[in-house]
């Protein structure tokens, strides 16, 4: 079992995602689990993770993975600190909806799911983010990317690994 712990705002997570998914295309028998780790030093990261978990909850895993490809394709830098510092939470959600191509009823579903409740209750994605954060904290994951193979952290895996290095490592376990 392979778990990759990634953050949507982390350039090294992007690099690892792109290599792991490239490896997966060449080796479809290979399976991995993405665990989300919103890094608190990027305040917009939590917003991106709320959005991604909302996509997964409303539209399913396939669209979640399409979103991951979209954000870690050519769109990640649109959500870096320098591009989001003066944007509200709602403005970032709208940018995500428009950029990801949500229209009509899908946009309404996302807007409803991400609507902020009364007081400090958050939105419907808040609990999903809490569960993701609790899981990575229980596993003692602090930085991204982090990789676990068969339940054990593999600290020697780098975001700079090639497809060949992933194959060699996975063939050896």
Question: How would you describe this structure to a colleague?
Answer:
- This protein has 173 residues and is an alpha+beta fold.
- It has a single domain, classed as 3-Layer(aba) Sandwich (Glutaredoxin), CATH 3.40.30.
- Helix content is 55%, strand content 9%.
- It contains eight helices and four strands; from the N terminus they run βαβααααααββα.
- A four-stranded mixed sheet has the order 2-1-3-4, sandwiched between helices.
- Helix 2 packs across helix 5.
- The protein is globular and about 50 Å long.
Task: Looking at this protein, list some descriptive labels.
Glutaredoxin; 8 helices; alpha+beta; 4 strands
Summarize the structure.
The protein has a single domain (2-171), classed as 3-Layer(aba) Sandwich (Glutaredoxin), CATH 3.40.30.
How are the SSEs ordered, and which strands pair?
Blueprint: E1 2-6, H1 11-26, E2 33-36, H2 43-59, H3 61-75, H4 81-84, H5 89-100, H6 104-113, H7 126-138, E3 146-149, E4 152-153, H8 163-171
Parallel strand pairs: 1-2
Antiparallel strand pairs: 1-3, 3-4
């Amino acid at each position: 079992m392979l778990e990759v712990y990634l953050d949507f705002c982390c350039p090294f997570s992007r690099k690892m995602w792109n290599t792991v998914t490239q490896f997966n295309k060449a080796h479809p028998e290979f399976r991995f689990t993405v665990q989300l780790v919103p890094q608190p030093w990027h305040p917009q990261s939590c917003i991106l993770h709320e959005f991604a978990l909302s996509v997964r909850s409303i539209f399913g895993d396939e669209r979640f993975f399409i979103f991951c490809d979209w954000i870690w394709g050519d769109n990640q830098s649109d959500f870096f600190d320098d591009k989001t510092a003066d944007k509200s939470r709602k403005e970032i959600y709208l940018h995500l909806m428009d950029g990801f191509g949500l229209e009509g009823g899908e946009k309404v579903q996302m807007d409803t799911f991400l609507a902020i409740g009364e007081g400090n209750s958050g939105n419907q994605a808040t609990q999903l983010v809490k569960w993701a954060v609790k899981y990575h904290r229980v596993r003692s994951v602090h930085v991204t990317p982090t990789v676990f193979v068969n339940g054990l952290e593999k600290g020697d895996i780098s975001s700079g690994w090639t497809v060949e290095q992933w194959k060699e490592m996975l063939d050896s376990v």
